[in-house]
Amino acid sequence: MESRNLKQRGRHSPGSPDMLPFKADDVAGEHSHGAKYTVDTLDADGEGASSKTYGAYPIVSTVQRDNGGTGNNDKSTTDFSAVSLAAGIQGIMRSQDLVTVMVLTVLSLMTRLYRIGRSNRILWDESHFSSTYAPKYLNHTFYHDVHPPLAKMLVALAQVVAGFNGSDLKQSNKYPENVNYTMMRVQIAMYGVALVPLAYLTCLQLRLSRPMAILAASFVLFDNAICVMSRFVLLDAQLLFFTALTLFSAATFQNVNKYAEPFSHRWWAWLSMTGFSLGCVMSSKWVGLFCVILVGIVTAEDLFRKFCDRIPWEDYTMHWLA
C-alpha cells in the first residue's frame, strides 16, 4: 500500500512537517509546476515503511525516472531533461535520444568533411588566421590582434597536430606540399560538427518535443553559412561551438537547479561547465560578451525568483556565492 505526500516547492524547508496530502490522480497535475513528492511504501505486514523523494518532472513516470527514461513498463512520454536528471549520461545512452544524436552526428560529419581537402589554395580569411596569426604562436613571435587568443591558439594546435613547422605563408596563395592543410581543416571542422548534436540536446533541455528538436538541429545541419565556415581554418567554428556549449550547459543547469537538489555534485558540475564554456566563448572573440550577458540575465532572474520564494537566507546566500 502506498500513501503520498506533496511538498510545495520553495515554500518549506527540506525538513518541514507541513505536508499536503493528495491523491494519486493529482500527481500529473502537480507535475506541471515543479513540485516534489515522496512515496511511502509499507511491506506486507504493514511495517518497515520506507520513503523515496522524487522531483516532479513534467510527464515523466516513476518507472522512467528509475530506469533512465526507457519507459519499459509505462507508455507515457518522457523528455531528455528528466532522463539526464534521473540517470545522467547513462540515462542518455539508454534512451532513444542516443540513436538520434548518432544519426545527426553522422550527417554533420558528411556535410562538414566531404571533399574538405579538395583545394590547396589559402582561401578567404585563412590568409590571416592560418597563414599569419597562428604560426606566430609556433614561432614564439609576439604580435597584437583585436581578437582574444583562444580560437587562434586552437588553430595553432591544429597546425602542430598536422605537422606544420610554423613557416610564414603570407606571401603565398597556396599551401606548400609539405603542409597537411586537410588535417588542419578537419580539426577545425570538428567544432562545426559538434554544433548539430548540441542543438538537438539543447532544444530538449529547453523542453521542446523531440520532433521540434530534430527540426531545429536540421536547421543547423543544412545552414549553408555555418557549414561553409566550418570547412576552413577560421575562428568562427570555435566561437560557435563554445557558444552552443554554453547554451546547452546553462539550460541543463537551470533544469538541475529547478528540479534536483541544489548544491549536489551534479548541480556543481553543470554550474562549473557553464562557467568554463563562458570563459571559452569570451576568450575566442569579443562578440562572446553577448553570450555572457544572456546567461547573466537568466541568473539574475533565477536569484530574484528564489528571493520571491522566500527560501532560507542561508541557502539564498549560498546561491549568490555560487
From TrEMBL:
Keywords: Glycosyltransferase, Transferase. It is an enzyme of class 2 (transferase). The keyword Transferase applies. Its EC number is 2.4.1.109. It comes from the Eukaryota. This is Protein O-mannosyltransferase 2. It comes from Coemansia furcata.
